[in-house]
Amino acid sequence: MRIRKYDFNYSRRSFMEKVATGAGAGVLAPLWPTIANSADDISKAYPDELLSIEMYTKGKIKPGDVITKDNVEAVKDLLEPITYQQVVKHGRRINIVQSNKDVTKLFNATYLEKTLANKGRAKVGPDGNIWTDGDTSKPWIGGLPFPDATDGFQTQANLTLNWGRHDYSQYAIPTYSLNPDGEVGYRHELVWCELNTTVRNDGTVFQGMNDKLRLQSVFFTAPNDTKGSSFLSVWYYDQRKFPDLYGYFPAFKRVRQFPTNQRFEPLVPGVTFFLSDAWAAGDPILTWGNYKIVKRGPMLGAVSGFYNWAGGKHPTWDQTVHGGGKGKTFYDTWMELIPETILFSAEPTGYPRAPVGRKEVYVDARNMMFPSQVTYDRRGSIWKQFEPGFGQFKNDKAEVLDANGKPDWSWIYCHTHDIQSGRMSRFRHEKGLPSGYKSKYAMEGEDVYNKFLTPSAMARLGS
User: Fold this and answer.
1) What is the full DSSP assignment across 279-348?
2) Judging by beta carbons within 10 Å of its beta carbon (0-12, 13-18, 19+), is residue 463 exposed, middle or buried?
3) Is the dihedral of CA 14, 17, 19, 21 positive or negative?
4) pLDDT tens digit sequence for 233-243
5) What is the CATH code of the structural domain delimited by 1-463?
6) Rounded to an integer, what distance in angstroms lies between the CA atom of residue 415 and that of residue 353?
7) pLDDT at 7
8) Residues 166, 417 contacting (CB under 8 angstroms)
9) Which InterPro entries match (predicted)?
10) Strands 130-132 and 184-196
């Protein structure tokens, strides 16, 4: 039987061939040259059935539909395994929207510009680290180092070197941790700060810290029993080195340094989130290993801020919830058909006592950000999901603009579902907290380093 070159299964065969040969993104044309030539339209890179959920499912699902246990089988192959379980067993609903063809809506503008300007200049040195033009005295100068990633290491590097894709990010986060019965067991309020010292959009090195990658802190502002608890991670540029981890607990009234393996434990009681989970890149790249691209193909993901961001609809950007035993387990989310995701796996080779056996990370080839991560325990059993939503802060009611007057972009919500214990932590990126801390995406003239990102700052915040 003669196989037509562009029949309905052409994309599937193309993706299988790419995994086998290590080719880059795109089916009908290479993705990133298409983006460089016409960033507002990627339709030339993919056939229609990868940009239309209605065509992909042969009319079974269309934009405006809601995925429930009654129709989820039509999109089972587009969901990672824990999301599928959530729909089938826990009453999760997923709203379907039209696929986005405009890549500029999947980035903050400065980071996309930096990616296109520096494409091809990232080189892996003999030490395994990523250098500009191969010069081991020059840390990566910004943007995605490998926008057209062809292996698991490159894909992980895109996630790790600049988590939030801003030089400084500060997130106000209410967190709800639910018991197996679906009732909220813990509610926390926290502030998460990220300052890149290298790999910056402005092309500078912060205060001469060439040997560092980032400074990242988290401190809790509520409830009273965890208020004042704070943690600081100091990341080295050398991805073979473990971050220095400091913590402050008000009960002990001192800052102490923690061992590296505590990156695989909850920060405070009740939550299912580990430091290692952050951005699917919570540990240095070279402390994990056995990177491997497992699969390429389409997937459903929450990547549209127009629908998922609640700016203008709620004063703090809060979102409605549903599902689980008490109707409180999942945020209402809107997902689209992503034409190509990269699924890669990795193992924590630098952590002999890590409870994680491996992780599988799903990455959107259009912006190299992850719609989901699934971790497995050391026995190989499926364990935890880390699912975020992303998007520009722009909808039909409000928008948040960057310094250049363009819509800003970031994460919007996260689900961290431990299916072995039945516990879920969900958290929102909100406008601000009752404590007065607000989300922002630049330093705005504030001395954030001394205020939030030193060991003495941890003690001061705790007291």
Assistant:
1) GG--S-GGGSEEEEEEEEEEEEE---HHHH--TTTSTT----EE-TTTT-SEE-EEEEEEEEEEEEEEE-
2) exposed
3) negative
4) 999 999 999 99
5) 2.50.20.10
6) 25
7) 61
8) no
9) DUF1329, TAT_signal, TAT_signal_bac_arc
10) unpaired
